[in-house]
Amino acid sequence: MITTQELARLAGVSQSTVSRSLQNSSRISLETRIKVQELAAQHGYTIKKRAGISNISGNNGGIAIILGADKMHSPLDLYLEYLSNEVIRQIEKQNYYCVISSYDASDHSFNYIQSIIETADIKGIVIINGNYHSALEDYLSHLNIPHIYTQYFSRPMKKSLNIIDVDHFTGGFIATNHLLALGHQRIGTFTSAGSDFKERTEGYCTALVNNNLECNPDWIIQTGLTYDDGYQNMQSSWNQLCDCTAFFAQTDILGIAIINYLTDHGYKVPQQYSVIGFDGIPEGNYCRPRLTTVIQPVLKIAERSIEHLTYLIKQKSTSAAHLFVQPELYLRNSTSHVK
């Protein structure tokens, strides 16, 4: 059987990083943990042995986390990492051990998931930030292994699936309503592709219409999700946005980019322009002013997910339910009454 020293050489990391990765230490990046764990499985370092070196006994067996690979290397990976670490903590609190993999619909990732399930005493599966893949779903359903989707992107939601998600429509409504309550009527938003962003935009438009305001398409800016995307789109769209007094950024990274664009160009936030984000990542605390945001409550999402999954495991049930966690307004310093 391969040693941790040999795994370290193959992964290009230190032996201590391998040990921490096998224990799912949050001190190691999610990407590195997945890389090490997949190499370990490929070279016969069994899941059972990994559980033995974990900080917990894992007497109830294993729960696998499968991450949507298309989101792992996107600007959403900060939020994904916070969510995944909290899901791991909740799994370990229930006395299960945890293994992590990614899935990109390729034969390689599908074969790896099969090997985990066949060798690791897997009792349940959490699929995080994933889209629906019929081959994976058919395989899991055939095995009768309870599994849930946490933050699920495919629409419409299939009635046969267990899904725990955030109410993105309500989140967009809350963010926009907060700005409206401060007297802002000309509110721009930065959105992106995907069902979650579509629902946030619908919440934004509904809040405006409920206040007898037009949902101006010129103030809905489609953008990528990196910091540079937000900054550059703010710059290129400024002529159509300059009449706005507030901005709803549909991720915190975009919110930070908007704040920095405004301050770089001599405008004051929130004295002249208010900015609200969405996600609740800690990085929002480190910009100036600190970013007011709508939080996707990671702890509640993780708790609800593992509570529901362990219920399905104990009841030996594959019955389906769609459960929604409500987002929450978190006030910092980047919004104020319109002047």
TrEMBL record:
Keywords assigned: DNA-binding, Transcription, Transcription regulation
Positions of the HTH lacI-type domain: 2-56
Matches recorded under Gene3D superfamilies: 3.40.50.2300, lambda repressor-like DNA-binding domains (1.10.260.40)
Keyword presence, Cell membrane: no
One term of GO molecular function: transcription cis-regulatory region binding
PROSITE patterns found in the cross-reference section: HTH_LACI_2
Top-level taxon of origin: Bacteria
Protein name, UniProt field: HTH-type transcriptional repressor CytR
